[in-house]
Design a protein that fits this description.
about 220 residues; mainly beta; Porin; about 55% strand
């Protein structure tokens, strides 16, 4: 009886593995993304859904990943983006300042895919990385509410990247994803301004990704 039960469990286990697993080949993956970017800092300090839409600017990225197994990957990404924020969309309309900036990010990332060993076509994942952010921004007072000259800043700062996403596998080597990206550091001058509390400036956004796997 015990032998029959063990045999039954073995057969059921093999059936489960056959149905829910998929063949894996270690490979390379390249991707491109297009999406939006918003800054949170001394000007954009209290955002709503409406202000996120009003102040959204564009971002584009290209990435390379080495897929080590169905769940673990390592790679790098290059990203270029623009950002904008205005006092008139937040809690300081009496001040009337606005910031416009551009930046480029290069980061080394790791990616963990959940349910990677199953044949599910829709899988969530998370990416995390570190890198450098090169930025240039200027603050102006276009409405003349406060007499404040145009002030500019530029520099390169250490940056950390956090990216949750969900991927749909179209074919064995093609997929599309939607991601939320958060870029942050210990800097307080991405929007030029400083405050006494040393508010950490952050840039976030939503983007769509197309990836293709190169099986060699």
């Amino acid at each position: 009886m015990r032998i029959k039960k063990a045999l039954l469990l073995f057969v059921l286990g093999m059936f489960f593995i056959t149905c829910f697993s998929q063949p894996f080949y270690r490979h390379n993956e390249i991707g491109m993304s297009l999406g939006t970017a918003n800054i949170s800092g001394d000007i954009a300090n209290q955002s709503t859904i409406n202000t996120l839409f009003l102040e959204a600017r564009g971002q584009f990225s290209a990435s390379y990943f080495r897929v080590l197994n169905p769940e673990q990957s390592i790679g790098f990404e290059a990203n270029t983006l623009s950002y904008f924020a205005s006092d008139f969309n937040h809690k300081n309309p009496h001040r009337g300042w606005q910031v416009q900036g551009r930046g480029q990010v290069v980061s080394l990332q790791i990616r963990h895919t959940f349910f990677g060993y199953t044949s599910l076509k829709l899988k969530p994942y998370v990416k995390a990385g570190v890198g450098a952010f090169r930025f240039a921004a200027s603050v102006s007072n276009p409405e003349g509410v406060v007499n404040f000259p145009i002030t500019q800043t530029r520099g390169v700062s250490f940056a950390m990247v956090a990216i949750p996403g969900i991927r749909y596998q179209i074919t064995q080597n093609q997929s599309v994803s939607i991601e939320a990206i958060l870029l942050f550091s210990n800097r307080d001058d991405w929007d030029v301004l400083y405050d006494e509390d040393r508010t950490v400036d952050k840039i976030g956004g939503i983007r769509f990704v197309y990836s293709i796997g190169l099986f060699y």
